[in-house]
Amino acid sequence: MNLYLHTLACAFGLGSWVSINGLWVELPLIVNVLPEKWDLPSYLTVIIQLANLGPLLVTLSHKFCPGRLRENLVIYAVLSIGIVACVLLAFFWKFTTVFLGQPRSTAFFILTFFLALVDCTSSVTFLPFMMQLPAKYITTYFIGEGLSGLVPGLVALAQGVGMSKCVNVSYVSNNLTEPGHPPFIVETHYLPPNFSTEIFFSFLAVMTAVSLGAFFMLNRVPRTFELSTENLVPDAVATVCKSLESSAEANPCTNGEENVGKKAVILESGYQLAFIYLMVVWVNGATNGLLPSVQSFSCMPYGNMAYHLSAALSSVANPVACIIAMFFPKRSLVFLGVLCVLGSVFGGYNMAMAAMSPCPLLQDAPLGDAIIVLSWVFFTGLMCYVKVMVGVILRDRSHSALVWCGAAAQAGSLLGSFIMFPLVNIFHLFQSGDICNTECPL
């Protein structure tokens, strides 16, 4: 029975972010087809942030109509929407419409919004449902949530990448009297991957269906669980400790030196808390808004292979960092600050290469390809480790601290996305290019 429930909990967690994670790792193939080209990631970051309307509505329902929202029905609804959206995406992701005189990927954007709505809403519905089960199954759920990034990344690596090659194509002039041989133009031809994007989106639909099936089975499990003495003893000890702390604070016999010491500790804690929240805003702004918007500009000049590996391995680095944080937790704020700075250095390199597009450093050297891929992997891994450990620190502090952590993370993500969107799509500070026709100075 335990193994059965662990398997269901893991499969249920797999559907939490598998759609959006899969969409990101498939972008290296999609940007070559859709009309937005290299600007496409900046559109997706804004669409994903707008999809936070889902968790906002769920939160407001809990606030103003407590006890009336049936989370199991919401989960059934969002997972069903996710399956339908993935299936429709497999058929209609290439369809475009003309908007303001330019072709736009309207179908792709609309279906991406629904996928993001599903995944964002899972953050405020899946975990509350898992709280009905013993704590050991919640850990398994988080493992499944980590696999929602790992599995699409591995499948994308197995899919391979549409390798490009430069082909001389003869150009026949309409002027038949033009002397000389017909000129040639160089075109970029992309070779097909091991399996198509349609099959990849179908795979995402299957993964979401597996999550829905697991939830259906978990929802039928009888709620006969009781708290064990191992759970009751820590709760009792915590209650006694809180009572003792309250009594000590209310004791009028405390001397002035102790009061001064407590005030100093509170002040120091306030500075630490401000530092933590600043890290939360910056890390989420960088990982969810600033850098994803320009990943195509930083990687595509090195070739489609570099972009594909950067997207896939970065997706794999996220759950790996979570696993490392689980077994090697380091709560030192100095250590986390150093990791945040180091991750920012890698992020700064990625941003610099995007700003130099289409002629970044070491563009024609294998070393340049390796550096940009490793830079994206280390950037994602280090920032993810910081996010996990900051969440652990704030979780142990209080429930309200964790709530403010979520608010700070969302504020950073929104800020990063809305800063980059006009820079990429209105002011065009980042330039795209063609691997075969771009001439860079030596």
What do these coordinates show?
With 442 residues, the protein is mainly α. 70% of the residues lie in helices and 5% in strands. The protein has 16 helices and four strands. It has a two-stranded antiparallel sheet with strand order 1-2. A two-stranded antiparallel ribbon has the order 3-4. A hairpin with a 2-residue loop joins strand 1 (97-99) and strand 2 (102-104). Helix 15 (366-397) packs antiparallel against helix 16 (399-425). Residues 226-267 have low confidence and may be disordered.
Order of helices and strands: HHHHHEEHHHEEHHHHHHHH
Average predicted local confidence, pLDDT: 81
Overall number of strands: 4
Separation of the first and last Cα atoms = 66 Å
What percent of residues adopt helix (DSSP H or I)?
Answer: 55-70%
Number of alpha- plus pi-helical segments: 16
Structural class: mainly alpha
Shape: globular
Strand content: under 5%
Query: Strand order of the main beta sheet, please?
Result: 1-2
Using only C-alpha atoms, the radius of gyration works out to: 25 Å
* Main β-sheet description: 2 strands, antiparallel
* Low-confidence sequence ranges: 226-267
